[in-house]
Structure formats: C-alpha cells, structure tokens
Amino acid sequence: MTSPSDPILAMCGIDKRFSGVQALRSVGLDVRRGEVLALIGENGAGKSTLMNILGGVIQADAGRIQIDGRETTITDVRHAMALGIAFIHQELHSLENLDVAGNIFLGREPRCSGPLQRIDRRRLYAATTPYLERLGLEVPPNTPVASLSLAQRQQVEIARALALEARILIMDEPTSSLTPAETDRLLAVILDLQAAGVSIIYISHRLSEVRRVAHRVEVLRDGQNAGSLCGDEIQEQAMVRLMVGRDLVIAQRTPSQALSERFEVQGLRTLAHPHTAVSFSAFAGQILGFAGLVGAGRSELAGAICGMNPRLSGEIRLAEKTLRVQCVRDAIDHGIYLVPEDRRKSGLIGAMSIRENVTLPDLRRYARAGWIDRARERRAAAKQCRTLNVACPSVEMPVRNLSGGNQQKVVLSKWLSMRPKVLFFDEPTRGIDVGAKAEIYRLLRQLADRGVVIILISSDMEELLSVSDRILVMHEGRVAGTVEREAFSEETIMHLAVGSSLAEIVEARS
Amino acid sequence: MKKDLGILLIFVVLCAILAVLNPRFLSATNLQNTARLIGMFGIFSIGAGFVIITGGIDLSSGSLFSFLGVLLCLGLVDYQLPWPLVVIAVLGLGCLLGLFHGLVITRLGLQPFIVTLCGLLWYRGLANFLANDSTKGFGNCQGFEMLATLATGNLLGVPIPFALLCVVGAIAWVVLHRSVYGRYLLAVGQNEEAARFSGVNTRRVITSAYVICSGLGAVSAIFFAFYANAVQPSSHGNFYELFGIAAAVLGGCSLRGGEGSVVGILIGAALLQVLKNLVNLLGIRSSLDFAVMGTVIFFGVILDELLKRRKRDRGMRKSLRANAS
Fold first, then answer.
1. Residue A371 touches partner B, C-beta closer than 8 Å
2. A293-323, pLDDT tens digit by residue?
3. Does the beta-carbon distance from B191 to A332 stay under 8 Å?
4. Which ipTM score applies to this complex?
5. Is A345 in Cβ contact with B193 (below 8 Å)?
6. Residue-by-residue DSSP string for A426-492
7. pTM of this prediction?
C-alpha cells in the first residue's frame, strides 16, 4: 500500500474565462492518495468549473495539471476516465431502462463470440456482484435501475466508477437528496473507499457532513483559493468565514408570539397515503417545521392542501372559516401558497422573464379586460427584485440565466408580491449557498412576524431546529408527533421520523 | 418582433426574386389569387400554431376540411337548409370536435399526436361515407348565392379570406402577446407544472387551444369548399394539416411548445403560398412542388435555429457578466 501522503493530483495556476467573465483565477488544488478533500464555496465560487476541468468536460485556459507527478493535459471526459478520474454528478446519469449490471458496464459489456456480439449476461452479472458487495448494495445485479431509490442509484454510479478503476472520485453534492440514514451509509462508504486508497473530492454545502468525512477542506471564493483547513481546524464557523469572507451571524430568533389566527387541517387524506388522515394546526406568526424522512408524505400533504394533488377527504380552515379548495387557483385566492421543492421544474418558467414569472399567479390584477399592463408588471417586478436583493440587470432577463439563489428569490417574489396568509415552503434552501440561505431565513422570520402562517418542509435538521417555532414530524403519511421549541432535539425528531411514538421516547429516556 | 426577422427576410427575398424572374408575380390577378390562398391557409395556421404553442399538435385539420366540406354541401344542396343555419352548424361542429380533442388529451392524458391521428382517420372516413365516395358540388349555388359571394368574393379588391385573415390575425396577436390568456398559453407550453403551481388552469387552457384550432379550421373549411367549388371527399384537404404545422414552425413555433408569434405564423403561411406560386410561375414541373417546399422549410428552420442560438449565447454572456459583477 502506498502511503497516504503521496500526491496523486496537483492542479496549479488554473485560469478559466467564460466569454469575458473570469470564472477561475490562478486556482490550485492538490489531492493525496487515499484522502477525502472537501471542496466548498458559495454558488458561483468556481467549484463546478474547476471540477469540470478536472473531469475533462471543459478545458482550462491556463494552468498545469499533474497526475502521479506527471504533467498531463486532460482533453475530454474519456481521457479523464482513462486517467482514473470519475465524476459523479449531482443529477444522476443512470439509465433507467437498464439493469444495475447494464449501467455499471455500459459501453464495456462482455460479449459472446459470434456475429451478433450478444451480451454475455452470465459474465456481466458475475463481474458486477463484487462491486455491489463492496458497497453494501444488497440487490441482485439484474435489478432494473428504475426500481431503485435515489441513494441506491448513486451507489450504482459509484460502483461504475470503481469498475472503471477510478482513483480519484469527484462527488458533487452527493447527499442533497438523501435521507439522514442514507447519508450516513454514504459517508461510511466514502471512508471505506478512502481507506482502500481511493481519493475523493467531496463537494457539499452541508458543512456538518464535511466536518465528519473530510481530512482537508479547500475553500473557493469568487474563483480564487480562499484558504484551506485540515484536521481540527475543520469547524463550521471557520469554513463559513472562508466561504463568505466574513463572520455570518444567523440571527438567533427570539421566541415569537403566536397570534390567535389559526390555520387548521383536519382529517386530510392524500393519494400517496389513502388510509391515513392527517390533522394539524398552525398559528399566524409562527414557523411550523415539517420533519420526516423522504417519502413520509410531507410534499404530498402540502400539495393536497394547496390544490395541486387531489384530496380524498379533509377540511381546511383559516381563522375558523372552512375554505373550499378544489384547485390551485382556489388556494391562491384564499392566500395559501406553495413554494415548491424543485424550482426549475415547478417553481419557475425558465424561458420567461423575471417580470412574467413574478406576475403569473396574479396576472389578472395586472390586466384590464384581459389586456396586460406591462408597465405595471415591470414596476411590481422591479420592486420585488429590490426588496429581495435579486441580482439582475433587468427584470426582462429570462430566469434560467440567473444563479440558483437568485432563482429562488424570484420564486419567493412571485408569492410575496401578493398577500400571503399561509405559505408552504418545500425545501427552500436546497442547493443554495450559505449567504442566500441566511437571507431566506431572515425573510421567513419577517413574514411570520407580519402574521403569515409559515410552514417549512425541510430535510435539513439544523435548519429546522434553528428556524422553526414548532416541529411536526411525519412518518409514513401520518403525524408521528409535534415537538415544541423547549423540547427540540435532533434525537427526538429522528426517533419520531423513524416511527417511534413520543411515549416510547420518554420511556426510553427515563 | 425581432425573432420574426429571419422568416421575414426569407419571405421578402423570395418575393423579390420571384418578381424579378417573372413580373407576372406582381400582376393584380396573381396577387389577388395568392392573397386568397394565404387567407384560407393563414386562418387555420393560426389555430395550428396555438396548439403547437401548448406543446401539442393537430393532425386532423385536412380531414376536417373534407368532413365539414361534405356536410356543408349536404346541408346546402341536398337538404336545402337556410345557409346561415348550415354555416353556424359547421362552425359549431368544428368547435365541438376541437373540444373533444382537447378533453380527451387533458382528461385522459393521451398524446395529442395519437388523438388527432385518430381524428385524421375518422373525419376522412366519415367524409367518404357521407358522400358515398362521390364528389359533392355546389351546383349553381341556388338559395345561398350570398354565402358563395362572401366566400369567394372580394372586398374593395381584397379577397374576403385575406381580409378575414387580417382581422383574425390582429385579434390573435392581441390575444397571444398582450392578454392574460396568451400569457397562460405560453406558460403552459413552456412548463405545464410550473404554470399549474401558479394557479393556471392548465387543462382549460390546453383544451381551449384545440377548440380555437378546430374552430378556425371550420372557417377555413368553408372557404376551401367554395374555392374548389366541389368536395372530393377522399382528396379534399389532403396534407393541409402539414401546411398549418409547417407555417407555425417556419414562423418560430417550437414543437416542444411555449414559443411562437402570430406575425411569424402569418409570414410562414404566406411564404408557403408564395412558394407554390413560384413553382407555377417559374414553370418548374408541378410534380416537384412538394420537394421545393421541403427544401425551403428545411433551410428556413436551420436559419431560424442559428439566429436563436446566437441570441441565446448573447443572453448567456450578458447574465454571466451580471452575475460576476
């Protein structure tokens, strides 16, 4: 075994310009054999650009790359793979119509002799099994990938990288859609691979994970090296300071006053869990957190309340009045809005301008006899962009050209330009950098203080614990329990999320 | 309007070439006849464009022209019904069939291609059946001279179909580019789910596009029937749906939906008719006319794509700079 101090990769003086914009300025990065290097930085700091250069997706304008001490120019993705560099993207690229083995050996299938070159299934499956075992993925090699969970698909991609004999594994936000348990398993696999001599470049916004797995942390800011940390220096405060270039104060919230106005849901059943009825109530002025594992039915519940998904039964009441909500329009007319999870897919219309996106839910207000008053639209959009700090040259810009954080702010502008009474946020900070996150938290607080009922669905435990006034935990479609602020702890919530009842938890404690 | 420049350029260049090569192009009779064709094709092309903007397609228009044409003849000639009644019935039936397409597509979730393909087969078959496989004519238009004059006549020298196209086009422009409904239509075509999250009744918007398409189709059907003065059920309107689709695509509608302009569609429809005219006037063997049209559409779409790509790159660069600053 080689000693872990051998440098396997050294990049230095990497420059990259995109049509007039300097994306990377003389950036350096080195990775040693068998270490986990975390690469962190805000959105737009240049992480992806740097990794795309390493993965052969794009070429650097200047700079040197050494692999095993030998100077190389990575020409394309194929070349990068041949050098032992594998890139696991945030959005997985597995082919759903093939089975596990087919994905792992795509393009390199063992073939039978003969003119038809049939795939030798026996050899294919036999070759796949060891990789699956090594990763602890307990599925037969002929399982269709379509039937696997997100976490399992990711493991298939890792297996593919291993089958390609990757020595450097780049993982871009690998845990962004995993449950806490799956995250734990993935981190264990990473440490395993690292012990076996594979080097891992780990990109993540979740600093607690970085603290758990990384040996070293390299921070990028505005396309330059902002500093690095190793060993005991890897603390969240220190990472944040390097990322944003200053100390970030996440406002410690003062316990807020629950107003008397109430939002109540009673006996609601959704298609996802037709046999469990959910009831809960939230108060104006408070932030109610929704915790639970992926698939616990939180998004479906929110969708059903807001008229997106069909509701099998159930009543929705606001301030003692029962509301009739048959479709999204009804919900919007009652002031109940949903900020959806996937902003590119459901929150925004990419090719439309900021102006058109902001006014879409309330377009009739900007129109007289069906004729849209564009000047009014423009004023409203510009006003929202100013209040939310959206960085854009003009409101006529298509939203797909904005950065992730700015896109999310446009989604928020859309709803805040009206009069929200109840606002559901589904994973509002996923894939958003620390600075923008803090702004969104501040906004949630302001809205609550203005008397809006805020319901925050999140898989980020720290976020829930620091932002919510009360946390409701869901498990398999039912409300497993509600935890008041005084009783907040990660442990209690996790227990509820996996299905233990509150009584059991209390019992276990005593 | 900038995005229509490409197609406008092709159109103008083509007209100029044609005028130089054969001055007869600019003769009053030729212009009048071409304008009449542009009117008839343009009206239903707008409907085809609306459907394409929602991300759908309507393949049934050509058969619909034959079916409604046969019904028109039956009602006017065989049953001697008062013409306003027949016209209203034909227009109403057109809208109803569009409603049927739209409802099947949005409620049952079937693909527009399949639903309207079935429509293409149905209406053609029904037309053949109702006409007993024989050509239906208007004879000497006894009892409905007024309708015949309206459909084939001129208004101050302008063919009535073209005059009507100007009116329909102006209304369609306002609806698509300035009204709430038009914004919804584009939004649904771009991203149906996001539109639904914003409270747009996406099913109703999509269904209405099919109603508009078949409704305008019914208007064109009446013109086509009187233009031919007879309806041969098995060939009347054959391939016309493709003219509508081609006009929309040439005019900048994306088959993926969410993109398109009324001015573009109109120029697209006009371009196709001028091309047909070109084949005639330049003495090209008429068997080649489809090939000529295919070639021009092919290069037109390539040019449009190149222009779009350039614009997108420029937008990208602008935003990168903005993000960096």
1. yes
2. 777 889 999 999 999 988 999 999 998 899 9
3. no
4. 0.85
5. yes
6. ESTTTT--HHHHHHHHHHHHHHHHTT-EEEEE-S-HHHHHHH-SEEEEEETTEEEEEEEGGG--HHH
7. 0.80
